[in-house]
Amino acid sequence: MRGFVVLPKRWIVERLFAHLMRSRRLVRDFERCTTSAEAMIYWSMTGLMTRRLARPHGGRA
To answer: How far is 59 from 11, CA to CA, in rounded Å?
Structure first.
């Protein structure tokens, strides 16, 4: 067998980690308690979701 098998679920997880690492506070483990770290993850995902919702859709009405 040549090459390697691409796992589709793994790419979803890798893409999620890439989006989370765009937030500067999530790059390192600065938070003391897990609730504030969880809140930062929610803020990061909320920003990603609003960017996706705000971009214009080409040709759809």
So the answer is: 29
Residues in the chain: 61
Using H for helix, E for strand and C for coil, what is the string for 12-50? Answer: HHHHHHHHHHCCHHHHCCCCCCHHHHHHHHHHHHHHHHH
pLDDT tens profile 8-61: 777 888 888 888 888 777 777 777 788 888 888 898 889 888 988 998 876 554
Burial of 19 (0-12, 13-18, 19+ CB in 10 A): middle
Decide if 51 is inside a domain.
no
Number of structural domains (the chain) is: 1
